[in-house]
Amino acid sequence: MRTVLEVDGLFDGTTAMSDAAIVLEDAGGSAPGREATITWVGKRSRAPRTPKGERSRALEAAARFVVPGMVNCHCHLTLDGSASFETEVRQDDALATIKAFKNARAALRAGVTTVRDLGANGTMVIALGAAIERGVVEGPRVVAAGRGITTTGGHGGEVGRVCDGADEVRRGTREQIAAGATVVKIFSTGGVLGEGAGPDLAPLTPDETRAAVEEAHKAGLRITTHAHGAEGMRIAAEAGVDSIEHCTLLDQRTIRVIKERDIALVPTFAALRSILDNADKLTERVLERTRTVAAKHQEGVRAAHRAGVRIAAGTDAGTPFNVHERFALELGYLKEIGMTAEEALAAATSRAADVVGRPKAGRIAPGAHADLVFIDGDPLADLDVLLAPKAVWIRGVPAAP
Length: 401
Ligand SMILES: [Zn+2]
Description:
CATH superfamily of the largest domain: Metal-dependent hydrolases
CATH class of the largest domain: Alpha Beta
Distance between the termini: 24 Å
Largest sheet: 8 strands, mixed
Number of strands: 17
Bound molecules: zinc ion
Radius of gyration: 21 Å
Shape: globular
Order of helices and strands: EEEEEEHHEHEEEHEHEHEHEHHHHHEEE
């Protein structure tokens, strides 16, 4: 059946249009994989007529504006954003699984219809993604890494697969792929949170990094890395990763390497912001690490954006006070480093979809997924309207409120 939706304003993933219509076509039935897709988008006055004998319905849109379902390039569904990261990452698998289900739903209701989970303490998010695909439970589309690949004493050791040496990295990466991972995550540098190495250190060697890149690409998967320090970013870029998460301490030399290789950046500003906004509730050690890097972070990403590096939205949701339903805050942070509202919204939709390797997501175009977010105001005039969607559609149907 054909569904026609009319709206006052629409953002298709790259540009805006007024007085628009979207045509959705569903293949009929509710079997997995038989979801509706977008078949036409354009000016309301030019919407195609329904052929004789075919059924069609005109639906009143839930709000005046519509944007594509948003894509969070970096989250941890198993984490709630509790103040003590060190305690939360040590939770048992059963609790982590329940939280993943809850947070996936929270993200979906907030307009995030695709998430990329970059590290859990097991295979629970991979399993959740598969269950959602099969229609067992409602939720966003999930791209999941399983465990992240780290080193002895490295960041993420609490939940990651600890590997030392290229052979061990190869084995660790293969384990995630065999378990059903749809992206590979590595840790190139130390971190701001957690008990491992600090942000400047680059424990993962070029050899180890190349081993992970090779295994990921051989399996047809993207590989992304956690990296704060410039040296770690360069090692990862030269080894062939597809994107870099956090990219906190960028310098001109590193930006050049990243630009030359067309590597995307996911700065996850929300992670540092959530820590700084809740300074009174955190330990001095975490605060001290955060304050040292925050200003440099903005400056570096601003320079990368100016140099034409691709930047996509991800929040690292699950880190302290950084909850899954507040994804849209990241768009405001991207605006602060010099993006226009249009660029920020593209970074959270079409560009993010490309970065996570799901080009049918994040756009309103023929052939794209019918994942839609309805809002009451023009998001290009005020990005904050995206924090409170009126309705969210996933796979062509409204998500449960
Ligand atoms: Zn993360």
